Structure formats: structure tokens, C-alpha cells
Write a sequence for this structure.
């Protein structure tokens, strides 16, 4: 039986930190589960770390569905979230519903969408039809060209205030979980305390309800310079499962992220 969304929310309410990782295949899914990871995210980051593109934009719905099926086959207990790729939900709520239905049929229990206030009607449309939604605020990689690069978000008082409004509005529209990417740690802590659903940070500091990293980043196998918020958990580990166990332990104890991983 997989971890349910209410059970995840209960963990967060009781102060247990949530350990989430991206996952794209069955072997990693089984290894992560054995290491105690709570949530597996079939992220569109697969476009960069698996397919070798320089952004997440080329990932198709068909590819996301394929990797969700692979991940679902390798795991039984973790909550499974599937990203909706670029171009598969932005046009209308109906388009988002059709794409979500494919990702859910492939094994996901929840879908993740990037965006703020413009996404509210879609979130409401999906959740009223039984599709749990995870929001994603802060750095939204699908908007990299509009943002002009992978930059920290929410740094000005105006941007921080807009994000606070967006977060509350997304909760009101029905999201059950919120990913916060590359934002100041103080803002992420305020947001986490203000809203009624768990937050999962990636470059958002220790004040979130849980943490997520891209598996290839935390194993130190993605070529190139890593982001400030990444820690290589292979250093000091004797196996991949050992590295993932070290990640789970560091997240649960609050030892990761440390100040050097924060903005
Ligand atoms: O696609 C992804 O891996 C993500 C995480 C970085 C949160 O959205």
C-alpha cells in the first residue's frame, strides 16, 4: 500500500520531515524505497539528466508516462508524483485534465504543475475531478527562457509578496503539496508556516516540510557545475543505497540543507 496524501500531510503536521527524490526507473525506485524515501517524483528533469537536453522543455507527455510506468513497477510504498511536461497543461484546464489522466493511469497518485495565479482554474478543475495536484513556485524551469536563466526567485519584497499570494491561492484552489524551488530560506519558512499543506524545498532552506533533490545531482553524476543547493551524498558512502540512506537521514534530522545550501 502506497503512502497516501493525507498520511504524508500527517507526517508533516507531526513534525517529521519528508524525504523526496526524483526517480525515472524501476531499479532506482526499489533502491529509494529500500532506503526510506517517502515520495518519488517522476520529474521532467529527466529531460536534462536522462536525455541530455539543456532544459526540461523537450520532454513529452508520452515520455513522462513511460517513466512513470517504470517507476511505479519498481515501487510499492512511496507516494508517486508525476510532472506534467511543458506544453501538456498550459493551454486549458481540459488539456491539463487529459494529460493528468494519462499520468495517473500510468501509476502516479498526484500530478505536479509549475505556475502561480494563472493556474488556479486548472488546479480547481483537476482537484474537483479527483486528481490531486502538487504546485511548484519559485524557480519554474519550464519558464527558463522567460526568466533568462536558472535564477533565485522571490528576492524583492514585491516578488516575495506575490509568491505568498500565489501559494495561498493555490491552496484555496485545492493543491495538496507545494514544491518551492530556489527561493530565500526566510521566505520559504514564512510560506510553510502560513499555508495548510506541506512544502517541499529544493534550494529553499530547512524551514520547509521536506526536501527534494534530483537523484543524479545528489549522487554527483550529472556533468557540469552543481547548483549551490546540491550536496553530493556519494561522498563518504560505499553504495548508491548508502548515499540515499544518508540523504534520508540528513533530511529527517534537519541536517540537510545546511546554511551553505541556502539563499
Ligand atoms: O522535474 C523535477 O525534477 C522537479 C524537481 C526539481 C522539483 O520539478
Amino acid at each position: 500500500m502506497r503512502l497516501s496524501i493525507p498520511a504524508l500531510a500527517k507526517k508533516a503536521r507531526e513534525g517529521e520531515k519528508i524525504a523526496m527524490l526524483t526517480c525515472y526507473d524501476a531499479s532506482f525506485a526499489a533502491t529509494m524505497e529500500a532506503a526510506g524515501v517517502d515520495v518519488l517524483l517522476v520529474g521532467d528533469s529527466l529531460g536534462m539528466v536522462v536525455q541530455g537536453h539543456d532544459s526540461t522543455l523537450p520532454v513529452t507527455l508520452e515520455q513522462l508516462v513511460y517513466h512513470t510506468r517504470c517507476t511505479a513497477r519498481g515501487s510499492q510504498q512511496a507516494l508517486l508524483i508525476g510532472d506534467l511536461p511543458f506544453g501538456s497543461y498550459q493551454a486549458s484546464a481540459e488539456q491539463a485534465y487529459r494529460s493528468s489522466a494519462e499520468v495517473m493511469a500510468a501509476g502516479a497518485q498526484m500530478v505536479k504543475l509549475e505556475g502561480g495565479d494563472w493556474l488556479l482554474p486548472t488546479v480547481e478543475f483537476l482537484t474537483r475531478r479527483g486528481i490531486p495536484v502538487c504546485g511548484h513556485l519559485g524557480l519554474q524551469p519550464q519558464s527558463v527562457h522567460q526568466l533568462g536563466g536558472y535564477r533565485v526567485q522571490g528576492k524583492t519584497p514585491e516578488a516575495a509578496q506575490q509568491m505568498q499570494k500565489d501559494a495561498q491561492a493555490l491552496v484555496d484552489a485545492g493543491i495538496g503539496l507545494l514544491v518551492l524551488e530556489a527561493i530565500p530560506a526566510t521566505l520559504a519558512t514564512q510560506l510553510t508556516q502560513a499555508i495548510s499543506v506541506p512544502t517541499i524545498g529544493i534550494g529553499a532552506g530547512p524551514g520547509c516540510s521536506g526536501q527534494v533533490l534530483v537523484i543524479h545531482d545528489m549522487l554527483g553524476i550529472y556533468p557540469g557545475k552543481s547548483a549551490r543547493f546540491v550536496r553530493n551524498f556519494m561522498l563518504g558512502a560505499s553504495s548508491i543505497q548508502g548515499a540515499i540512506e544518508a540523504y534520508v537521514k540528513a533530511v529527517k534530522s534537519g541536517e540537510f540543507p545546511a546554511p551553505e545550501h541556502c539563499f
User: Anything to note?
Assistant: Strands lie at 18-22, 39-42, 79-83, 110-112, 133-138, 177-181, 199-202, 210-213.
